């Protein structure tokens, strides 16, 4: 009997995915072991066409001596298209015991070679618009089937957004297909298992296609058609019959097209739906579509078609409004109790022609009235015209809103509370982290960070989800990614976005400010474009998967070379447009840009990206590049010191952000670091324990303080309640992170309308410090193969607990203060990893584990002692320390 098992098999981070076009999928598993200190000594993977592994084995890795249990690339014969592959795993321990085979898991391939699409791109023929609005297209086809269909898959994509229906019901619960990519270069298609929706005899497929990101309004200049002018659809349905033969239904000129009740759908502006125009049964078989136009065949786009890369968006949860408010102006407003992203699903009973409107907003003004000023031109309005008769239920199709408050007209007050539901929509990322502590305000802060992530991870990482922006701002993504990787598994989400980043880079390596690129935004700013390097590196650190480095390497290198070509000195970056320390509080009156010199910030990021590129080259075995970029990095550091540090070692620009960056990225000589850290601490103290940092300095501020021995000050900064601070917004009732430290000022007035989001995750990057320093979960080797557990226990908290579902399994730290100054700390270390656990206890202090002295402890692999700490090297398992 062995006491370890293999479970949680995944493929490219997903459980049993359909429609993967990766030719070398990465297979991972987790191990549960009853005893401490489990290390995998060898593994065996088998891949087969059947879940019993009874017939042909497609690939047998044989027994491989290795402790790797994550991201093992499939290395068997070339995979076939549209095929399901089962795999199973068993592992050996160091004593030579072998586990049972795991339960099988699978992945199913999509199209693996060009030329498999037989379908045509189809579009609605041009029609004269009845009004200024543009009705969405309804497209349909009928077909008959024999009674022996055993499996059926739809592959579908569109120019625009689409919703697919099979025999009158949605094909599945996914939303916002085909997702947002750099459409003219890369376009995703989705795979649907529709086996259970088809039946013998008559069947139908229907699709609604709207503007979405492809053709709709984007950015702040009121422009549309950023990617193309014509909406279109392509669908291919494969059916396998019981005799093994195949049938295909494709989109072609026989499909029929019409407009319908959905009169307008825009991401920013909402939807207009006239239920009186509903066409009952339009996506069911036998619908009389003879009045519908014939679909037009259009030219295929030039973009590469790729299988969906990230998890789809879905309704992840629903929330009920907490109140109906009548404002001083007499408006009827629903309060959802949470700033959320998605839409409202509602049911009304009213006469035909009754117009119901829902307007969405994030905050009420200081008088308590409905306020939409900060949405700029985004209308976020649902207009629903009732059909009359029975109760009718509506929710938007191809548009989402960012809101806490909903102003409703056309519905009697008493129907509001029970028949309006908030549907929270975001990319269906696996939640992986939690952080809680004894301070309720900090717990609300963590809640706000998490909701900022939910609201802004809808297919791409956006700055904000409400105003006429909602774009993939690179800087915001870069500062938040490490925090994001605690809260959720973000690999497929960012892998997709980074491929678009690479696709949108110009030949000279410049990186647009927003990805997918919407050209009016511009390109090339320090700390924004550096997302090209920082994001892949962060993913590699947090998940230990080199694939993202391999894929992104040319893009990473091109970005560094772009910077190198900019400066008038090869080793400084002192030219071009930069956002600087965006929104820093030391900005001049009426400026958005903090006081830290832009060329200092730019040169810091030049150094940092070059350093990461050199490390990446080393990981990938590109030794020449590694050496060359190490050399470049040294030169940049030298140039930085010459330009931005006085001969005696003082950072020449005395701003918090300048100190933080110089320390964070090791740009100062060793002997000047403690002094600079002290100056930073003094700056903060002199400011009454307040920060002045913006987007660039804030994410690192507390990490730097903690690293240089000022954790106590970091705690005071985080617990600061006065403006400016993280808790200021919490005390003002925020339920997400604000763009501005003073989005709502102390007198209740707002920051100006032109740039004031209440759901902007950038400052939520403090989550990284909460997990790493308060919770104490950090990594020593990529993917948390070797973990560091070192909570820095603050005077102000009596307990804290943090957990992270790493690729190896759950890491958990839970500390609490006991009577008489003792601390209890429980630690969970997943199988096949080790951890360095740093316990803050003086020599001679008593440390007990489960009531026993440490030298009795199973799982202890080594121990070191310094004046104020015990450093224990531990194998996997559960531990409970008191000290
Ligand atoms: C704003 C965005 C974003 C920021 C840029 C510089 O428009 O909202 O957060 O990165 O400006």
UniProtKB/TrEMBL annotation:
<feature type="domain" description="Alpha-L-rhamnosidase concanavalin-like">
    <location>
        <begin position="326"/>
        <end position="426"/>
    </location>
</feature>
<dbReference type="InterPro" id="IPR008928">
    <property type="entry name" value="6-hairpin_glycosidase_sf"/>
</dbReference>
<dbReference type="Pfam" id="PF25788">
    <property type="entry name" value="Ig_Rha78A_N"/>
</dbReference>
<dbReference type="InterPro" id="IPR016007">
    <property type="entry name" value="Alpha_rhamnosid"/>
</dbReference>
<feature type="domain" description="Alpha-L-rhamnosidase C-terminal">
    <location>
        <begin position="776"/>
        <end position="849"/>
    </location>
</feature>
<dbReference type="InterPro" id="IPR035396">
    <property type="entry name" value="Bac_rhamnosid6H"/>
</dbReference>
<dbReference type="InterPro" id="IPR013737">
    <property type="entry name" value="Bac_rhamnosid_N"/>
</dbReference>
<feature type="domain" description="Alpha-L-rhamnosidase six-hairpin glycosidase">
    <location>
        <begin position="432"/>
        <end position="774"/>
    </location>
</feature>
<protein>
    <recommendedName>
        <fullName>alpha-L-rhamnosidase</fullName>
        <ecNumber>3.2.1.40</ecNumber>
    </recommendedName>
</protein>
<keyword id="KW-0378">Hydrolase</keyword>
<dbReference type="Pfam" id="PF05592">
    <property type="entry name" value="Bac_rhamnosid"/>
</dbReference>
<dbReference type="InterPro" id="IPR035398">
    <property type="entry name" value="Bac_rhamnosid_C"/>
</dbReference>
<dbReference type="InterPro" id="IPR036116">
    <property type="entry name" value="FN3_sf"/>
</dbReference>
<dbReference type="InterPro" id="IPR013783">
    <property type="entry name" value="Ig-like_fold"/>
</dbReference>
<dbReference type="GO" id="GO:0030596">
    <property type="term" value="F:alpha-L-rhamnosidase activity"/>
</dbReference>
<feature type="domain" description="Bacterial alpha-L-rhamnosidase N-terminal">
    <location>
        <begin position="148"/>
        <end position="317"/>
    </location>
</feature>
<dbReference type="Pfam" id="PF17389">
    <property type="entry name" value="Bac_rhamnosid6H"/>
</dbReference>
<dbReference type="Pfam" id="PF17390">
    <property type="entry name" value="Bac_rhamnosid_C"/>
</dbReference>
<dbReference type="GO" id="GO:0005975">
    <property type="term" value="P:carbohydrate metabolic process"/>
</dbReference>
<dbReference type="InterPro" id="IPR008902">
    <property type="entry name" value="Rhamnosid_concanavalin"/>
</dbReference>
<dbReference type="InterPro" id="IPR003961">
    <property type="entry name" value="FN3_dom"/>
</dbReference>
<dbReference type="Pfam" id="PF08531">
    <property type="entry name" value="Bac_rhamnosid_N"/>
</dbReference>
<dbReference type="InterPro" id="IPR012341">
    <property type="entry name" value="6hp_glycosidase-like_sf"/>
</dbReference>
């Amino acid at each position: 009997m062995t006491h370890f098992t293999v479970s949680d098999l995944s493929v490219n981070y997903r459980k049993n995915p359909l429609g993967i076009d990766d030719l070398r999928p990465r297979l991972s598993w987790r191990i549960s072991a009853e005893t401490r200190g489990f290390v995998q000594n060898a593994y065996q993977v088998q891949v087969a066409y059947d879940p019993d592994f009874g017939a042909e084995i497609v690939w047998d890795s044989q027994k491989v001596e290795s402790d790797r249990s994550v991201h093992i690339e499939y290395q068997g014969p070339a995979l076939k298209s549209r095929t399901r592959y089962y795999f199973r795993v068993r592992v050996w321990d160091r004593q030579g015991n072998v586990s049972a085979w795991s339960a099988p898991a699978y992945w199913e391939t999509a199209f693996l070679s060009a030329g498999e699409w037989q379908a045509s791109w189809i579009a609605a023929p041009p029609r004269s618009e009845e009004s200024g609005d543009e009705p969405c297209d309804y497209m349909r086809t009928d077909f008959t089937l024999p009674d022996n269909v055993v499996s059926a898959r739809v592959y579908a994509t569109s120019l625009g957004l689409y919703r697919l229906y099979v025999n009158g019901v949605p094909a599945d619960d996914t939303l916002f297909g085909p997702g947002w990519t750099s459409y003219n270069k890369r376009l995703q298609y989705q795979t649907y298992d529709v086996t259970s929706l088809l039946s013998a005899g008559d069947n139908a497929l229907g699709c609604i296609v709207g503007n979405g990101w492809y053709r709709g309004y984007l950015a702040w200049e009121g422009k549309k058609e950023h990617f193309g002018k014509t909406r279109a659809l392509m669908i291919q349905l494969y059916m396998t019959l019981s005799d093994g033969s195949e049938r295909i239904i494709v989109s072609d000129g026989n499909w029929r097209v019409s407009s319908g009740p959905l009169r307008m759908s825009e991401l920013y502006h909402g939807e207009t739906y006239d239920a009186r125009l509903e066409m009952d049964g339009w996506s069911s078989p036998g619908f009389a579509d003879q009045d519908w136009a014939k679909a037009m065949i259009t030219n295929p786009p030039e973009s590469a078609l790729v299988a969906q890369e990230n998890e789809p968006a879905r309704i992840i949860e629903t929330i009920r409004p907490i109140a109906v408010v009548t404002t001083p102006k007499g408006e009827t407003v629903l309060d959802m109790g949470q700033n959320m992203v998605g839409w409202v699903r509602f049911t009304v009973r009213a006469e035909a022609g009754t117009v119901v409107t829902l307007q969405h907003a994030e905050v009420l003004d200081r008088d308590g009235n409905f306020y939409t000023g900060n949405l700029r031109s985004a209308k976020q309005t649902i207009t629903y015209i009732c059909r009359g008769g029975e109760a009718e239920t509506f929710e938007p199709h191809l548009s989402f809103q960012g809101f806490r408050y909903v102003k409703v007209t056309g519905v009697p007050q008493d129907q509001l509370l029970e028949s309006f539901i908030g549907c929270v929509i975001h990319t269906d990322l696996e939640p992986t982290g939690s952080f809680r502590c004894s301070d309720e305000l900090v717990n609300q802060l963590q809640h706000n960070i998490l909701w900022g992530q939910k609201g802004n991870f809808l297919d791409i990482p956006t700055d904000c989800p409400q105003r006429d922006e909602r774009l993939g701002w690179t800087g915001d993504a870069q500062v938040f990614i490490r925090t994001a990787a605690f809260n959720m598994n973000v690999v497929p989400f960012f892998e997709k976005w980074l491929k678009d980043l690479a696709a949108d880079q110009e030949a000279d390596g410049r990186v647009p400010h927003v990805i997918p690129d919407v050209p009016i935004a511009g390109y090339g700013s320090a700390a924004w474009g550096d997302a090209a390097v920082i994001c892949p590196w962060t993913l590699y650190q947090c998940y230990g998967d080199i694939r993202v480095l391999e894929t992104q390497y040319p893009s990473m290198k091109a970005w560094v070379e772009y910077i190198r070509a900019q400066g008038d000195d090869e080793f400084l970056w002192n030219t071009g447009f930069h956002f600087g320390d965006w929104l820093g509080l030391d900005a001049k009156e009426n400026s958005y840009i903090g006081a830290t010199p832009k060329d200092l910030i730019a040169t810091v990021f030049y150094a940092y990206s070059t350093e990461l590129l050199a490390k990446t080259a080393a990981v990938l075995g590109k030794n020449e590049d590694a050496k060359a970029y190490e050399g470049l990095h040294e030169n940049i550091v030298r140039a930085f010191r010459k330009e931005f540090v006085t001969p005696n070692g003082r950072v020449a620009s005395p701003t918090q952000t300048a100190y933080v960056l110089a320390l964070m990225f090791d740009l100062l000589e060793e002997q000047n670091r403690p002094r600079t850290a002290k100056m930073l601490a003094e700056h903060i103290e002199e400011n009454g324990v307040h920060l002045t940092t913006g987007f660039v300095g804030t994410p690192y501020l507390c990490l730097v303080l903690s690293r240089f021995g000022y954790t106590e000050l970091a705690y005071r900064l985080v617990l600061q309640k006065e403006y400016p601070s993280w808790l200021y917004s919490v005390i003002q009732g925020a339920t997400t992170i604000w763009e501005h430290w003073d989005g709502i000022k102390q007198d209740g007035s707002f920051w100006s309308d032109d740039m004031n989001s209440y759901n902007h995750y950038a400052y939520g990057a403090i989550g990284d410090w909460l997990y790493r320093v308060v919770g104490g979960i950090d990594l020593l080797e990529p993917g948390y193969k070797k973990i560091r557990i070192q909570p820095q226990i603050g005077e102000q908290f009596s307990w804290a607990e943090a957990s992270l579902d790493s690729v190896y399994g759950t890491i958990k730290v839970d500390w609490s203060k006991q009577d008489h100054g003792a601390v209890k700390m429980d630690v969970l270390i997943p199988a096949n990893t080790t951890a360095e656990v740093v316990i803050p206890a003086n020599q001679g202090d008593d440390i007990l584990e489960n009531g026993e002295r440490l030298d009795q402890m199973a799982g202890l692999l080594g121990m070191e002692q310094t004046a104020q700490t015990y450093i224990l090297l531990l194998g996997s398992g559960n531990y409970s320390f008191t000290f």
